[in-house]
Amino acid sequence: MKNLLLAAASMAALTTLASPANALIINATTNGNSVDTSFSGPGVLAADVDFSAFAGRAASVILDVTLEAEDLGSSLDFNGVMTNGNFFENLKSFTLILDGTTFSAVGSVVPFFSLGETVLGAAGDERIDIMFGEGGEPAGVELGDVGFGGTNFGIDISNFVAGDSFSIGLIGEVPEPGVLSLLGLGALILGARQHRRLSK
Fold first, then answer.
1. Contacts of residue 116, Cβ cutoff 8 Å, sequence gap at least 6
2. pLDDT at residue 4 greater than cutoff 90
């Protein structure tokens, strides 16, 4: 049994060593959010982000990407799963912003639950905005082909050489609190104060 476990561990180690290298060099500024770029590979930038650290009404992640020879071509594919880790509020919108290049194609956008999303932006733009339908998106959105079909976004790298870099900002926004929400919060605070006074 012990030899079988050692053999299995050795095979797992060899499989890990033989797996394809991630050609992109990616440095993430997470701002407290969870980011996984392990599905990236030659010619593909994949980023799965759980937006949970909202500063004000937005949560953001910045990916600084450096290309290697295996990535070069006219376009770099981009896809990812963006989830809403803020269980109290639905996402109102999601924004992709490039610095150092433009989009060469707008990919598919599939919200988990909301209907009626609007995608603003086109090939040649540095920014793509995704506005969710009434009520927002509670769970998240799939961008491009994350394994369930769809079309990847394209990032123009036609004039890039190995070692060149660009940045992509991913921003999730929640709506401003409504008047009723603020009144409800105020009532909770007043109730807690009254309870504390009565407890003394």
1. 132, 133, 134
2. no
pLDDT of residue 193 exceeding 80, the answer is no
Helix then strand then coil, in percent of the chain rounded to 5, is 20, 40, 40
Q: For the residues of 156-181, what is the DSSP string, one character each?
A: E-TT--TT-EEEEEEEEE-PPPPHHH
pLDDT at 23: 67
Q: How far is residue 102 CA from its own chain's centroid?
A: 18
* DSSP string computed for 23-44: -SEEEEE-TT-EEE-TT-BTTE
How confident is residue 188, by pLDDT bands cut at 50, 70 and 90?
A: low
Whether 24 and 68 have beta carbons less than 8 Å apart is answered as yes
Do the Cβ atoms of 128 and 118 come closer than 8 Å?
no
Name the β-bridge partners of 94: 130, 172
Q: What is the spatial distance between Cα 33 and Cα 114, in angstroms, rounded to a whole number? A: 22
By CB neighbour count within 10 A (0-12 exposed, 13-18 middle, 19+ buried), where does 12 fall? exposed
What tokens does 123 get?
A: 């090939």
Residue 59 structure tokens: 């949560």
The two structure tokens encoding residue 83: 């989830």
**Residue range 149-164, pLDDT digits in tens:** 899 999 999 999 999 9
